[in-house]
Amino acid sequence: MQLPPAPQPSAASPTPSKPKATGDSSGTGFFVGNDGSLLTNAHVVDECTTIRVTLDGREPLPARLAASDKANDLALLRVDHRPTKLAAIRIGIRLGEPVAVFGFPLSNVLASTGNFTLGNVTALAGLGDDTRHIQISAPVQPGNSGGPLLDHQGNLVGVVTYKLNALKTYPSERGRGILGAARGNVGSWRSMRTRSTMPFWRCYG
User: Fold this and answer.
1) Exposure string (b/e) for 171-187, b if CB count within 10 Å is 16 or more?
2) Is 145 a residue of the active site?
3) One of 69, 73, 133, 151 is an active-site residue; which one?
4) Bias category Low complexity: which stretches (predicted)?
């Protein structure tokens, strides 16, 4: 699949410090507002005391949690940065269409410049026929969480959320299996408005 030139979302790598024994974990995010608003997964920053965002290999910037929607695993961060490129959202997605994932998996192990993988939409529902999610075949690793799911023109069609362990039937970032992506369609956006998420949407816009 050849991707035509298209504006890409400015991606970033949120690196939260958690009050656990290991101290650090990491994920991926992307800018959705020119005021420094950055979208990632809620589980990436959940229970973190400090959040830092690394942009293009520069020194990490402090970020704050502006809003969180744990039911849909989304979090909005704010950072003192004015991006020049923002995600262009496309409504609707089709079974079998080609998609791409960009992110920063396995922080401090794989390339710090990011990882780009290709695949297809393999199902229009996730675990238990949850239509807020889709399944894709693009390979992902721990650290891809919160990254953008893009169509062949570079438009945002979803957010990477989880992958199913091949041996245990629960969402996990370990093992091989099913990747869920929060769908960018009218139904899912409306359902998020009805699940006590108005504080999130007031911040997100």
Assistant:
1) bebeeebbbbbbbbbee
2) yes
3) 73
4) 9-22
